[in-house]
Structure formats: C-alpha cells, structure tokens
Amino acid sequence: MGDDEKPPIVEGENGILLQFHDLSGFPRGMYINEEEWEQAQTDGFSFGPMVTEWVENYNTRGVVEPMQFTANEGYMNAIADPDTLVSVPWREGNCRKAICDLENTNGSDFELCSRSKLAKAVDSLAELGYEAKVGSEIEFNLLTEFETDRLRREGTDYIEEAATSDLGAVYHLRPLEERSKYLSELNAVMKQMGYKIEGLHKESSPGMFEALLRYTDAVHQADAVATFRLSAQAIGRRHGLTPIFMPMPMSDYEGNSQHYHISLWQHGENAFYDPDGSEDVADVAYHFIGGVLEHAKGITVLCAPTVNSYKRLQPGMWAPVNINYGHDNASTMIRIPTPREEGTRVEIRIPDNSANPYLSLAGILVAGADGIKNRIDPGEPSEEDVYEAESDDYRQLPDSLGEAVDALNEDTFLCDFLGEELINQFSRLKRDEARRYNQAVTDWDVREYINRM
C-alpha cells in the first residue's frame, strides 16, 4: 500500500480515537475498538512518554531526555474523559473520539500533561470562589490545497498565490460564499461534537478567516480549540482546501492570532461586572488583569511558543508589543471590550495558534488568580494608540523565542505552578528550536546579502 493510500473504513465500524496533546499542543493518540472503551476510562492505555515532547530527530540530537527501557519506567497512561466522547462526523461508520488526561502507571500525576495543568489552574480560581468562562477567536488562512514540494521551494509567495481566490476586505461576503460548503460543514461538525461556533467571517489577509467559539468552562474551551484545529484540517481535505494556523505565514500581512475572552463568575453572576466600579468593571477584574500583566513576560512563551510567533508580535500587526491594558483599545496586550453586565470580560491578545491551548490558558488563569489573591494593581489603562506612543512607561514583551523562554524560567511563580519537569522539557525544546532557526540560512538572507559582498 502506498504512503498516500488509506485503508478502507469498514461500514458500521465502532472504533474510538483516543486523543491527547503533547507539549506543543499537537494531537496524538491511538485507535481502539469499541470493546476497549471501559478500559480506556478506568485503567487507560499505556504510552511511552517521549510522545509528549518528541519531534522528528529530537531523540537523536539529545534534545530530550533519553527513553528509559527498564520495566514500567518512563511510561504513562492515557485516561479517557467520558464527558468528551463525541462522534467524528467526517469519518465513515460510527467512529467516535475522546480526549484523555495523562497519568503515571502508578496513578500519580504525569507532570507533562498540559490538560491537567489547566485543571489545576481552574482549581486555583475555584479556591478563591470563581469559575472561569472562556471564549476564543481563532484566525487561519484557508488555501486551495497546495503541493507540499512547491510550498517548500517557493515559501510565502506560494501561500499568497494559493489564497488569492479568497482575497477580500474584512467581513466581505463574497469569500464566505466562495467557501460556503466548507465553512457550513465545519460549523455543523463542531456543533455535532458539542462545540458552538458563534460566527465565521472574512479577515484582513488573503484567505484569512476568523471563527468565534462560544464561551464555556476553561478546560472545555481548550478542548474546543484543539478540536477545531483538527476538524478544520480534516474537513479541508474533503473540499480540496488546506487551512493553516501559522502565526505569520506571509510577510506583508497581519498574522493569525488566537485571542481568549475571559470572565469570572460567582453564584451565577459575572463577577467582572460592577455598576459602581470604574467603567462598570469590578475590582476583581482589575486585579485579574494586574496578575496577568505581572506575569506577562513569563506567559508569553506559553502563548507564542514558536520562532514565527515573534514575527506577528510587532507594532501595527494588530498584536501586542507592550505589557498594558486598555478599555476597548486594540493596540494593548489586554483589552476590556465595550459590553458590560453579563458580557463583561477581558481579551488576552498575546496567544496565537501555535500555542498549546491547555498550557497557554493555564498560565493566563493562574496568573490572574495570583493577581486576585494579592490584589495586584494593574495601573492606569492605556487609551492611546500604543504603537505610536513614545512613552518610556511601557514595559516591552519579549521579542524573540529565546528571550521569552528565559522570561518563563525567571518567573518563579509560574515555574512552581507548572513544575520543574515540564519547565525543563518545554524550555529544552524551545531553546533547540531557537538555536536551529539562528543557524538556518533563509531566502531573506540570500536576497538581502548575496549581492552586497
């Protein structure tokens, strides 16, 4: 059977896909028979832990710790969460999938399980009496299905060419009509799996769309983000389309972000709303903001974890560059949108789609909890266009992957929360990525310098 050929799916098949996520947020897992579902929920299925951080050739370069081969050492179990069991609409037969948490074989916490870290952050807020609700804005470029070899040769020029059929202004309706079959199926599939897309619209770059995911509890929202990415790609193959979530796929256009809209609730009411507060916003919201600002440098690499991420975090790219907040100010790191009462929320604008949604949300929420616990003052809001400001009062976000990794390691609060093992493994992978990028000679290098010397 050739590499591109897929085995036929048996009609009426009752299998289940077990899905978990590595440190980079990539989905991994295995396919089991329906008869094994009870075991998946109780004892789980055993995996070698290198799959939580392994990328091709990393193990041969000594980037991650070597695999242990003694009995039961170094393995972990994927335990299926039965609340996440859903049908997989793009698969034939009766295929379903479930998202897993990871444990050591003795039942203790597996320190590289990012979903468990998010649950821990949720518990930190619960101890203060709050429940987080999170919604997401996910941007991506939808391309005509491209040839991988040509993409490698031509790079961003080919990406722009593949997306030109969708070129149009923000909220332009024609691109929605051109891609209506794909977008309608994506919307229907997400709904069938229990996740609601509140809106889909054209964005500013070629082939760029944005999906708005309905707010849910934090863990369910991270599940929704991970499921959206998987669904968008699977459905794209059915329509001859390729969605890409790369933060900056083209040099001359805005990049793809993934903003989180967060509110805290208490006794069934939005705790961020206070009609007697400044701008009708409660003190607890400002303290939450203060905590996120306090830990912003350390959070950055969790939200923007690739070299390419820092090509998006530049002035004028609808992305933050400074550590600040503002009321309905789209140039700040944290924006407080206009709606109040039940709609009162904060928008965190650092994240992009290369982020592990569980790790990025965990870092944001636990930082906010620290702000509430210690009543951290966020300072005065920024109401001007931050990109044009010349004030020295703004604290800069990290502007490279290496700097961002260092900032995380310097934040003792985040390091204590995430744990030494995760910090070490995550930092090792990210520093290796930065090193390989710095050693690579790019097309830009050649165009810029080849005729100068």
Please characterize this protein's 3D structure.
- The protein is α+β, with helices and mostly antiparallel strands and 453 residues long.
- Helices cover 36% and strands 20% of the residues.
- Strands 7, 8, 9, 10, 11, 12, 14, 15 and 16 form a 9-stranded mixed β-sheet that branches. Strands 1, 2, 3, 4, 5 and 6 form a 6-stranded mixed β-sheet that branches. It has a two-stranded antiparallel sheet with strand order 13-17.
- The radius of gyration is 22 Å and the shape is globular.
- It starts with 15 loop residues before the first strand and ends with a helix.
- Mean pLDDT is 87; it is low at 6-10, 55-60 and 67-72.
List the helices and strands and how they pair.
Elements: E1 16-21, E2 27-32, H1 37-42, E3 45-47, H2 58-61, E4 76-80, E5 86-87, E6 96-104, H3 114-127, E7 131-144, H4 148-154, H5 156-163, H6 173-178, H7 180-192, E8 197-202, E9 208-217, H8 218-238, E10 241-244, E11 258-266, E12 269-270, H9 283-294, H10 296-303, H11 309-312, E13 322-323, E14 325-327, E15 334-336, E16 346-348, H12 357-373, E17 395-396, H13 401-410, H14 412-418, H15 420-439, H16 443-449
Parallel strand pairs: 1-6, 14-15
Antiparallel strand pairs: 1-2, 3-4, 4-6, 5-6, 7-9, 7-10, 7-11, 8-9, 11-12, 11-16, 13-17, 15-16
Helix pairs in contact: 3-12, 7-8, 9-12, 10-12, 10-13, 13-15
